[in-house]
Amino acid sequence: MMTLSETAAVLRTADKVVITAHVNPDGDAIGASLGLMHLLEALGKHVTVLLDDDIPAAFSVLPGYDVIRRPQEGEAEACDLLVVLDTMSDRIGCVAAAVRAPRILNIDHHHTNPGTAGEDLYLDATRAATAEIVCDLAEALGVQPDAAAAACLYTGLATDTGFFRFSNATAHTYRAAAALLEAGAQPHVISEALEVRPLQTVRDLAEALGELELFAGGRACGIFLTQEQTARMASTESFIGHIRVIDGVDVAVVLKCKEPELCRVSMRSKHVDVSRVATLFGGGGHVRAAGCTLTQPFEEARKTIMTAIERAIREGWTA
Ligand SMILES: [Mn+2]
To answer: Which residue from 8, 29, 46, 227 has the least number of CB within 10 angstroms?
Structure first.
């Protein structure tokens, strides 16, 4: 584990940097990546952002959105340093094979990240977002975020904290956000852009909510999407937020069947440590927001995750 100043020193010595983050990128993965890109460019570095996924159009409000690239088959991008943000480097998809880097720097805020042999890790699980760590790095690097960096980093802070409502938002998070506002971030522009949904997504939400299932005596609620539904629904990210608010529900879960024997699980909680549930199946995350992948058919995966959540509630798995 490196210190903040050691991490800043590694960034300072690199000239050609590739930045990446996890597949299925969220506002923090995208915002931290673009925010760090703007900071490093201000220091005169050559920076490329590679993400192995389609970037939701809602994020086109972020300066730099258009320069994010998805690596092509057989691509080999040479650089001095690969920076992996908001995940350990096993979740960056084809970027791992597409980049030739003598050094890998992993910057993350997930306490479940064990680090990877041969890579440098800077982990601060007290930070609500990787973008908040990038704010710390800006200070350590002595670079003041411009309006572009500020918009991107603000987006990371806002999306990982449910717009500053979740328990991970600390006084430090608010101070970082205030500094980004002073640097030119416009919260209303960002939140309006991010809350826009295609009509079909709202219709898909209605369908999913129509099929929600309460379990564990009403203390858990799940949306379980078959492979057909998962393939048909373009965006399901917002679904979990609509069931975590149900009176009496501690754990909310959304399961999506991606392939005949592969289901993705997202969990949110008010008290239960869902990162412990995710870890049972090789996943990870935060105490109140975690995820995992089950290599089981839909019905079996549905039962597996319900049973695990029921157990976590019954045995009082709290952090
Ligand atoms: Mn994050």
So the answer is: 46
Spacing, Cα 169 to ligand 1 middle (Å): 12
Q: What is the Å distance from ligand 1's center to 288 Cα?
A: 13
- Note the pTM of the prediction, 2 decimals: 0.88
CA of 121 to the centre of ligand 1 (A): 15
Distance 21 CA to ligand 1 centre (A): 10
Which of the 8 DSSP states describes residue 259? Answer: E
CATH classification code of 199-314? 3.10.310.30
Contacts for 171 with CB less than 8 Å, ≥ 6 apart: none
43 CB-side CA count, 13 A: 26
Q: How far apart are CA 209 and CA 201, in angstroms?
A: 12
Element (H, E) at 120: strand 120-123
Structure tokens at 171: 């006084």
CB 215 within 8 A of CB 236: no
What is the per-residue pLDDT across 75-133, written as a single tens digit (0 to 9) for each? 899 999 999 999 999 999 999 999 999 999 999 999 999 999 999 999 999 999 999 99
How far, in Å, from the CA of 29 to the mean position of ligand 1? 6
Residue 130 CA to ligand 1 center (angstroms) comes to 5
Tens-digit pLDDT profile for residues 207-235: 999 999 999 999 999 999 999 999 999 88
Residue 96 CA to ligand 1 centre (angstroms): 20
| Number of C-beta neighbours around residue 44 at 10 A | 7
Residue 141 CA from chain centroid, whole number = 24
* Distance from the alpha carbon of residue 28 to the mean position of ligand 1, in angstroms: 5
